[in-house]
Amino acid sequence: MKSRSRTIGAGSVIGEGWQKFATFLTHAGRQQPGREGGFVNMPVERGSTVVFPTVEDMEAQGVHAYDHRLVYGAMGNPVQHRLEQVIAALEGGSHTQVVNSGLAACSVALLAFLKSGDHLLLPDSVYGPTRRFALGMLARFGVETGFYPPRADEATLRAHLRPNTAVVFAESPGSHTFEVQDVPRIARLAHGAGARLLLDNTWGIGAFQPFTHGVDVSIQALTKYPSGHADVILGSITVQRQEHWQALRRAAIELGACGAPDDCWLTLRGLKTLAVRLAQQARSAYELALWLESRPEVAHVRHPALPGCPGHEIWKRDFTDASGLFGVELVEGITQEAMVAMLNGLNLFSIGASWGGYESLVLPTSGGLTRHHEEGLPKGAAFRIQVGLEDVADLKADLARGLDGLSS
């Protein structure tokens, strides 16, 4: 997919870059009807056993386990294969493996490229369950994990690399503290050390083209924006090089990682409206972030598209748009307890840990984050906002009532 123009900045509208993206998604993954017509959406095919007319036919089909072909239910199904084609094109890769969750996408990708005795380097802002998987299961398998500051300069990052570093992981921006990482620089240093770069690109879907910036493996929680309706758990792993696909696909087969047909179908359906949903959510989030910056109760708004946000210049250089997820840090003197009471009293924002759906959510991000480095941690009470499809004026009014209560 080609990069898209962007009109972003003070006083401008965010989300205009989604237009060509919308055309791609509207036509990608559709059923191709014959001359006599047919439904525009492909059907759901559910099954485990694939039967063949002869043993020879079964053996001949078995060699296609790496080719997105129907071999056995646990190796993929027709709607999963179609979804994989769409995600690969969306991410700018050659092959995608769909798995049963976003965390599974992180864990399967790490298992595919790590072995006992290897060193894994994670950003300190990494998704909490990914950190837990690395310090738990990977540690039991003999993989050592180190953590680097997400906005580390070249010298600092180089100092964290070791001779046995096999994988450097990135997540840009971090999903709680929103540090934008210099992915091209990280890629250059990782490759110079003989390591592969894996990126959790969930925030940047459609707005960040991973393989043009040196990424080897791009991970998506399809649970979020692609499905878009808070009713699917699914993940994807995309690669561009054939040797990476061989390693990834082998790991997926060995682990039995796949996507359920209904979840894949729902995600394909969600992708049709992804561009218009993201454009709306990005515009609303940007407007809400600008408004929150003006509130006296707010110390910092962590939205990469805001000029004052750390990492904004990298975001402006590398991204073509933004999403609807950002962070808010309150001024000194507002306690964690007072913030929690405010969040509990909101009417339009539900309290929940996910994001990317149609509904607006809030989640506390202070007091419970695990870090090896102090850099990036909020100094005061902080929370995360996922902006849904509600009218932004209504969202402002709801937050204004809560913030006014803090002031009083």
From TrEMBL:
Coiled-coil residues: none
Source species, domain of life: Bacteria
Spans through the membrane: none
Record keywords, A-Z: Lyase, Pyridoxal phosphate
Catalysed reactions, as listed in the record: L,L-cystathionine + H2O = L-homocysteine + pyruvate + NH4(+)
Pfam families from the UniProt entry: Cys_Met_Meta_PP
Cofactors named for this entry: pyridoxal 5'-phosphate
Protein's UniProt keywords contain Lyase: yes
Keyword Lyase attributed: yes
Family to which this protein belongs: Belongs to the trans-sulfuration enzymes family.
Name the UniProt record assigns to this protein: Cystathionine beta-lyase
